[in-house]
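Hi there. Long-time user, first ticket. I'm pasting a complex I've been working with (about 706 residues overall). I'd like to know whether the download I got is complete or cut off, because the file seemed smaller than I expected. Thanks.
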Amino acid sequence: MTSPVGLHRVVEPAGVLPQAAWRLDASPEIAPNEVRIRVERLNLDAASFRQLWEKHGGDGDAVRAEVLEIVSARGKMQNPVTGSGGMLIGTVEEAGRRSPLGLRVGQRVATLVSLTLTPLTILDGLARWDGRSEQVPCDGYAILFARSIAAVLPADLDPQLSLAVLDVCGAPALTARVVSRYVVERERAGDPTPVRVAVIGGAGKSGSLSLAAARRAGAARTVGVVPVVAERDALTAVGLADAVALADARDPVALSTAVTTALEAPADVTVVCVDVPGCEHGAVLATADGGTVVFFSMATSFAAAALGAEGLAADVTMLVGNGYVPGHAEFALGLLRSEPGVRALFEARLAAD
Amino acid sequence: MTSPVGLHRVVEPAGVLPQAAWRLDASPEIAPNEVRIRVERLNLDAASFRQLWEKHGGDGDAVRAEVLEIVSARGKMQNPVTGSGGMLIGTVEEAGRRSPLGLRVGQRVATLVSLTLTPLTILDGLARWDGRSEQVPCDGYAILFARSIAAVLPADLDPQLSLAVLDVCGAPALTARVVSRYVVERERAGDPTPVRVAVIGGAGKSGSLSLAAARRAGAARTVGVVPVVAERDALTAVGLADAVALADARDPVALSTAVTTALEAPADVTVVCVDVPGCEHGAVLATADGGTVVFFSMATSFAAAALGAEGLAADVTMLVGNGYVPGHAEFALGLLRSEPGVRALFEARLAAD
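Hi, the file is complete. Here it is re-exported in full:
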């Protein structure tokens, strides 16, 4: 039986899982439990795109050349510096008879597992991409294993909009789970203290969804923290947060002051959604004793978080943001449909790309 | 008023917290809310010492020279590659009149905040250290800020034994907190399923304490996973775990098979205490849906954990092991005093150093 987690596609080093592999076998022939997708678009992880963009000083041709080189060398799109990938959209071309994913040929799908573990072959040299945006038009093949996740794209939404939401759909689901735990515990204890939530990077994709999710889960007061005036105005206009604060998340003192002022106390739950390094200490300092920090940014440093909390004698729970929570795709698409503020930010973002 | 978190000691870059700083001001004059410690011993973080040891191919003189160079350049002992530090033992030499730590001149203490944020000056060139062990005899000065933690060394225990326990005392405290949450939730739900706990690296310092903590918190079945026969025999002999399994934690399939076999099911809580990179995927794969992985190793990769869980469609909660939990020092020293198995492993380890 072929490995449900794709071990048979690992070329080197031997014995690791596909995400940890340096190189995968991306040949198009599928095993009975696999599915082959005809790719139409890649969506690069924000941290990965930013690293490539900065490395090449905004030269789109050089960014495109490096993405082609990575995929050709590794059989997958995994940025060797950030370690991150992204996701893709495409059409089911062939579904093995023993695949448990329930997909049918011709269905248009988005993959909800990372590109870092998805065998990928690019056929068109990315000729339709200018290297200047995370959204990459692409003709090629990708392979899904038995234990993968793919969402059939909803008919009522623009596929690019669905893709942008699905790319970050783990964040609102986990935020809702964490916030509702605080709400339930306070209710159970008869404690009337409001549950306070701060979302760092609140105007971005995962940030705006997380703000909406926190409110839905029962947060009594929320603040979205953003780095620039344009984002402050945009987030204020859509009304997704009770307060919007301007602060550099890399400056621990400025960040914690901004959050504590806006919420009139430190946050019970702080959600980090900004893709720049160095936000760990500020997030810890902005969080109340007994609170939780959820790190969704791939730029998070494990050591900085662990040692930062210890060094500040901060009794906070720190979560590695897991991109998978059961029902995450439906929950995020539901927020997009029901929250005009979320939809407005996503559509503005896509229009600007 | 001088900063309680030591901002006034940061030399470069400006505006960051001491742990994130490249260089600290380690001058011996203290502010009214600081404490100066006369250092007698450093205890390097295991991941840091291993990196230095491997880089210099086991040349103790070269390891010593690099430690001296780091402390001289940075004003603190923070390994530039691993980002980690360690802790120290010493005697209170001067306590500022506004220090809230409650320390008195002459008390023998261990610092429970990391060396990565502790201003440090070495005076003796580490002349008494051969560079071949994590325990570093040292004459020098260190500075504690207002928001620091230091434990007065207990009179009934060998100081080296106390230091070894205090160095990892966050692990058993957090393990106990996480395990007891599962025990309480199952009781509340009337669910008789036993709570299963796996500790990867169960024969080590944080591992053996975590096994004892898990059992005390109500774990019904525990397994300690170790990489070599000698550790298997040692851990089996002291009886701290219900089962002991031999597996390479970097091999996800081998690790998850070992855990699942020993516990007769995946673990509800998996605690990672081994200081080698690449254990994230195996830990996730060894953990049940709805379970929790606690990462205590500084060699943990944030991206590997986040993307690994997503790629495996694993609904697991992943915690960044925070070295600070209120009461952690007393709890860990209590385990050492009351669990002969823990004490035996610690004493054997110190004797071998």
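A couple of notes from our side: Chain A has two domains: 7-157, 170-352. Residues 196 and 332 of chain A are 21 Å apart (CA to CA).
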